Amino acid sequence: MSFEADQVRKLLRQQSAVARFGSFALRQNDLHKVLTEAARVCAEGLDAPFSKVCRYRAEENDLLIEAGVGWDDGVVGYVVSRADISSPQGRAFVTGKPSICHDLRADSEFVLPPFYAEHNIISTIDVLIKGSSDRTYGVLEVDSNQRHVYDQHDVDFLTGFANVLAEAVDTAERTLVLQATVERMKELVQEKDRLLDQRKVLAEELQHRVRNNLQLVYGMLGQQLTDTIDQAGQRGLRAIARRVSTLSQVYDQLLGAEMTSTIDFGGYVEALCLNLATVHAASADTVQLTYVCENVDLDLDVVTALGIVVAELVTNCFDHAFPAGKGTIAVSMSRKLTEPNIALLTISDNGSGFKVHSGSKRHGLGLVRRLVEQVGGTIAVATDQGSVWTVGFPAPGTDASEPDVMVDAAA
């Protein structure tokens, strides 16, 4: 089997691992179980025996091991290091860039806890786990007791996985807030009952006041359900499922590509648009999704990242661009005439335009920008008439084929 075929199989296995993890995170509300499964999947994906998820603690300015696989008892729950450049994970946290150490035995600049030597750790790779807004959750690390030279595909896999994990962490934390609110409501009900038993003389007035307080709590809870679950929590879970579905379509495309290391991104975008039109079938006969794309062969990692970008932006158009329920979404992709090694991807709509309001919780758009940066691209939005998202990205090769025929997909 050729090296290239081995690489493709490895990438397929990694993509499948992300898909399985996304399905697991979609069903799981226990954050510790989500983190432990993430550590297991990452270790398996990089053929390493050890992995851990470290949470940043701002007050202590350190990194605490929240979950892991392969370690002896007592390692999970241990403070692995300060959040500074004195350790591999600290360096990744401070710089915001992946930190790779192929051989710790030859690197004397790091101060490591004793359990690294006890487990004969030689190679490490760390990436940042970004949280909501500007908050960083921590670091995802994979460790090996054999010398391992990590390549760019390994970095991209771990970085992409950390982005999905960040969304899962945000969703789990929002769920915890909701659960805490429900528990607080139960405590207020119990307090009401206790006071009624102790103050029967004032029962009527007390019940009137407590009833009003409970109605206020229910109102606050209802608002939180609207803001957190319906609009953020559930949308976050749907977003994870959508991204996993987008990753799985890369696998489907590979089945027809004879296991090559690249994919025709134009054909992939067309298949993705057909799928998105089916997903949003409730808007049939009111919103039209059209697309026209040149054939451009791209690496699997680039296709995966840009596929998520297309899914996020098209879904954003369906969800927010047409208050009146009618309009057109257009997706196009072609090489620049003046720079054939650069391709332009455009997602536009003739709706009400895109506006970011103060306090917006559209985490998916933040992920879009991170993914575009990850592939070395640029992104801009114009909102004069409707919205037009323009993504520029490297597209090696100068053979630009004729664009496919314009296709209308009734959403």
Q: Tally the beta strands.
A: 14
- H/E series, N to C? HHEEEHEHEEHHEHEEHEEHEEE
Strand order in space, largest sheet: 3-2-1-6-5-4
Total DSSP helices: 9
**What profile does the largest beta sheet have?**
6 strands, antiparallel
Spatial gap, N to C terminus: 43 Å
Helix content: 40-55%
Instruction: State the assembly state of the protein chains.
Output: single chain
CATH topology name of the largest domain: Beta-Lactamase
What is the CATH superfamily label of the largest domain? GAF domain
Instruction: Tell me what the CATH architecture of the largest domain is.
Output: 2-Layer Sandwich
Describe the secondary structure blueprint for this structure.
Blueprint (H helix, E strand, L loop, with lengths): L2 H25 L3 H15 L4 E8 L4 E8 L9 E4 L5 H8 L3 E3 L12 H5 L4 E8 L5 E9 L7 H47 L4 H53 L6 E3 H15 L7 E7 L3 E3 H21 L6 E9 L6 E8 L13 H12 L3 E5 L4 E8 L12 E4 L1
Parallel strand pairs: 8-10
Antiparallel strand pairs: 1-2, 1-6, 2-3, 4-5, 5-6, 7-9, 8-14, 10-11, 11-13, 12-13
Helix pairs in contact: 1-2, 1-5, 1-6, 2-5, 5-6, 5-9, 6-8, 7-8, 8-9
